[in-house]
Amino acid sequence: MTAAELRADMVLAIGERTPQLGTDGRLRVLVTGSRKWRREDIVRDALSICCNIAGGLAGTLVVVHGGAIGADSYADNWTKGKVKLGWPVEEPERHKADWRADCTDRCRPLPTSGRPLGHRREDPRGFTVCPAAGFYRNELMVRLGAQLCLAFIKDNSHGASHCSDLAEKAGIDIVKFEL
Ligand SMILES: [Zn+2]
Predict the structure, then answer these.
(1) Dist. CA 100 → ligand 1 center (Å)
(2) What structural domains does the chain harbor?
């Protein structure tokens, strides 16, 4: 598939969802993607299409992402660049996972289960991390709402698939790009 064909496909796929602005006049687009996603061009093109839609509706685009490497960082770079150029885009909304946060009562096994660390893992830098922190972050992003979710999934990556599944369950329209 050529780059032009790919872009035409994306315009169709995103347009078919007919995303509308939220009541606040914003088009919130939740970006979830694999850390190993390498096709920056696809992320940029998809966001440009969303921006055209938001602008066409006299609104602004808000790009919401998890602040990770890969697709998230491409989305972040695109957004910052377009804010500087005066496009109808707001500063990116980043939700980094708080890996060092305390476990919640939904974590299994809990540190009180007899295993001193529960499911926490030791980090070589001298602290412990909650492996579910990324999932809790995904839940938060979905709870905050979005008009559209763009999922950039490489090799069925677990985190990005989890986030897009949650978005789907929450009734958010999704356009999935899989490599
Ligand atoms: Zn935990």
Answers:
(1) 9
(2) 3-97+141-178 (3.40.50)
Q: What is the pLDDT of residues 127-177, one digit of tens each?
A: 999 999 999 999 999 999 999 999 999 988 888 889 999 999 999 999 999
Q: Token digits for 169? A: 């369950």
Does position 113 have pLDDT exceeding 80, yes or no?
no
Q: Is residue 103 a contact partner of residue 119, using CB atoms and an 8 Å limit? A: yes
- Between the CA of 118 and the centroid of ligand 1 the distance, in Å, is 8
| Mean pLDDT computed over every residue of the chain | 93
Contact 93, 62 (CB under 8 A): yes
The Å distance, Cα 164 to ligand 1 centre, comes to: 21
Whole-prediction pTM value? Answer: 0.92
